[in-house]
Amino acid sequence: MYDTVLEETVGLAGDGGDWIEGYLARPLAPAPVPGMVVIHHMPGYDFDAKQITRFFAVHGISALCPNLYYREAPGASPDDAAATVRAEGGEPDDRCVGDVVAAARYLRHLPNASGKIGMIGFCSGGRQAYLVGCRSQELDAVISCYGGRIVAAPNELSERQPVAPLALTSELSAPLLGIFGAEDANPSPEHRALIDEELKRHGKVYELESFDGAGHGFLQHDRPSYRPEQAVRAWQLILDFSVRHLGAPAF
Amino acid sequence: MCTYITEHVALAGTAKGADGWFPVSTASVYLDHPFSAPLEHALCLDFLNPDRGPSARVAVELDEGSARALATAILSALGRAGTAE
Lengths: 251, 85
What we know:
The complex is a heterodimer of chains A (251) and B (85). By secondary structure, chain A is α/β, with parallel strands linked by helices. Chain A has a single domain, classed as Alpha/Beta hydrolase fold, catalytic domain (Rossmann fold), CATH 3.40.50. Chain A has helices at residues 47-58, 78-87, 93-108, 124-135, 189-201, 228-246; strands spanning 5-13, 19-27, 33-39, 62-66, 113-122, 141-145, 176-181, 206-211. Chain A has an eight-stranded mixed beta sheet with strand order 1-2-4-3-5-6-7-8, with helices on both faces. In chain A, helix 5 links the parallel strand 7 and strand 8 (206-211). Chain A is globular. In chain B, a hairpin with a 2-residue loop joins strand 1 and strand 2. Chain B has one domain. A four-stranded antiparallel beta sheet of chain B has the order 1-2-3-4. Chain B has one helix and four strands; from the N terminus they run E-E-E-E-H. The interface between A and B is medium-sized, with 36 and 25 residues.
């Protein structure tokens, strides 16, 4: 088994052709290798996002995390970049869709790519994964981890985030795995039930898993919200789902 | 919270960051997942000078009780000095 993994910062043409950076981690094994776009959480393109990107690579899946805040803060620390984007009203949905699709295309054109590309997001990125899954036809699997504001009241919408992703569910173009903490306030168990109902109503292929004893951000190992037992089970589910819908990993 | 809902305050003053003192022109105030504080949610304050770029920023993340105590102390200090409105 040839298990060498290459990790590096790369440039890619994001939404509108804008140059943005991304963190790429990929097995150098021969084809076919599936891919995964990693959508970082609201605190930005940080160590945790890169760690998750590496996680997929060492499990035989090429992964790319685009820096969604690069335009506003090239070269800045992740927390300063996140604060800047927040102050400007947050990451615009349209731009996010373009950047994530660009990352998927980048992975699809790697020399050892199988052509099957999934997408995973956490926190605000969980909402964005659901959104992109509904607005693009280019992903083969969608994994949304405790995505807040998939269900959103009118007063929670804005010019940059004008639509609750739940309202786009009929357009969802790939199988979806939703990961939830049963003690999370957003998405709450009520939100989860609404998502379930909407996915069922539109005949989508999906799995929603709720973990008792866990709240928001329970996969993040460097935060007090981390729940190791639930996190281990959730990561296994994520890998199983990825293999079922993207094909066998490189190793 | 996973929300971009943010209060903005125009400021006149200075703050001290990694490169010393600099003028600040605005503050962002929000309740959300903190970057550093070991809390699920924190009251976050960013003192900013957007003209100097993203790194011209002094950040504070506080638990709710601390944030309320700070707000009270600011008003109290201003009141004692006779400058509160």
